[in-house]
Amino acid sequence: MADTETKQVITEYPARLQMSMLAPVRRIAELLKEGDKEAHVVGYVFGKARGVSFRNNPNSADGEAAAGLIGAFEGIPSYVDLDGLTAAEKCEGRARLASGVCFLPPQAQATYVNAILKGMDAERPANSTIKRGQRADVLGVECDINLEIAIRKSNSPVGYEWVVRGMGNVSAESPIERMRKALGTGPGADLAKIVDRAEKAALPAPAKAKGGKKK
Description:
seven-stranded mixed sheet; 31% strand
């Protein structure tokens, strides 16, 4: 019987899922040649958004609060085969990420926030009404998230721009579903379980009941 190797896949549970966690994007941008117009895939994000979490943004110039999507999200780093990157930078063996809060690239983030809060403009809190360290969550229209995240070299101060592509519904034959199977993550139900674990881990411990006899 042929020997088989079992690869352990690690899942991390950050407080928020940010696109820079998928790959060392600045390092990748530095290695891209001038004139390279290709969009280099750094990962995939999928799940379901059910609301928006507004937080105080001290750098806001227009009075708008920072807005993160809330729901159940999973990020999977993509292997980046680029000369000059170390094995770790190529994302070999990097953990997948599960979180209840997600920040997509700005254009995509704004699109989803508007879709989730469609017809609910009055529910958007002003930045000045949210105290530092606090948040205001608003539930709205549920939206599926099935996205490919890439970067393209640019002349911007950071040296790259985000490229976000929608992947439609996740079917059994889709690239993202095949990747999930290869990594050992099941569909929907498993995603809900791992995000539930993340959310529970972030909750404060319940207050201990005071002693005394019940009457």
